């Protein structure tokens, strides 16, 4: 087998794996993890049968675990980029909020996975999302703001609850249809309420 053929086969395999992950993400967040079968994922991904899934994943839980890792790692990389671009904690938080609202409008399945699904029900060995590396980095942003005097003196976990409680609740209501407009419509009000709750005046 020549290098070009091998490369093409690897690309096809990677595409098939990505198609399975995308299909599973959509189904898990629409139907729920336990109501989604491997046959459902196979049909939605173009694998046709569950046998096509087994070429890439041992079982449904392994698919969910791969999704968790992909989403958390992608979010962590995005937060790193935001922190590199901005020195002030307020600017970092503003960009993180922008990211969350943008994802809610344009990649709602990702945000449903983060905010709506109870990950520990089907991935009991994984850390809760809020204890993942991505969210630990957000706590560090808040800690930096407290140290710099931008944010009220409190521990970073309490600041997180005060600030992101408002952001996450707004986004959950958009994702579940309780709030009927696009997330972008509510972003400025949510930001103002959240920031007013922690800013040092």
Walkthrough of the structure:
The protein is mainly α. The chain folds into 2 domains: 1-57, Arc Repressor Mutant, subunit A; 60-198, Tetracycline Repressor, domain 2. Helices cover 75% and strands 0% of the residues. It has 10 helices and no strands. It has helices at residues 3-31, 38-45, 50-54, 60-85, 89-106, 108-115, 119-122, 133-148, 156-175, 183-198. Helix 1 packs across helix 2 (38-45) and helix 8 (133-148) crosses helix 9 (156-175). The longest helix has 29 residues, at 3-31.
Blueprint (SSEs and pairs):
Elements (H helix, E strand, L loop, with lengths): L2 H29 L6 H8 L4 H5 L5 H26 L3 H18 L1 H8 L3 H4 L10 H16 L7 H20 L7 H16 L3
Helix pairs in contact: 1-2, 1-4, 1-6, 4-5, 4-8, 5-6, 5-8, 5-9, 5-10, 6-9, 8-9, 9-10
Major sheet characteristics: none
Strand content: under 5%
Rg from C-alpha positions? 19 Å
The helix content, as a percent range, equals over 70%
| Structural domain tally | 2
Give average pLDDT, whole number: 92
Cα-to-Cα separation, first versus last residue: 68 Å
**What is CATH's topology name of the largest domain?**
Tetracycline Repressor, domain 2
CATH architecture designation of the largest domain: Orthogonal Bundle
Question: Which class best fits the helix and strand makeup?
Answer: mainly alpha
């Amino acid at each position: 087998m020549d290098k070009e053929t091998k490369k093409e086969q690897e690309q096809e395999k990677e595409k098939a794996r990505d198609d399975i992950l995308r299909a599973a993400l959509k189904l898990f967040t629409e139907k729920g993890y336990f109501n989604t079968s491997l046959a459902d994922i196979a049909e939605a991904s173009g694998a046709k049968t569950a046998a096509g899934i087994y070429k890439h994943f041992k079982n449904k839980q392994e698919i969910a675990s791969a999704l968790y890792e992909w989403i958390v790692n992608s979010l962590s990389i995005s937060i790193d980029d935001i922190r590199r671009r901005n020195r002030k904690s307020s600017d970092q938080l503003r960009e993180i909020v922008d990211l969350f609202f943008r994802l809610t409008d344009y990649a709602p399945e990702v945000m449903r996975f983060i905010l709506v699904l109870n990950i520990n029900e089907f991935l009991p060995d994984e850390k809760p999302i809020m204890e993942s590396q991505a969210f630990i980095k957000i706590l560090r942003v808040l800690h930096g703001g407290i140290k710099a005097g931008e944010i009220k003196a409190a521990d970073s976990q309490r600041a997180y609850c005060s600030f992101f409680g408002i952001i996450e609740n707004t986004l959950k209501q958009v994702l579940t249809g309780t709030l009927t407009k696009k997330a972008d419509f509510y972003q400025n009000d949510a930001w103002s309420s959240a920031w007013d709750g922690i800013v040092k005046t």
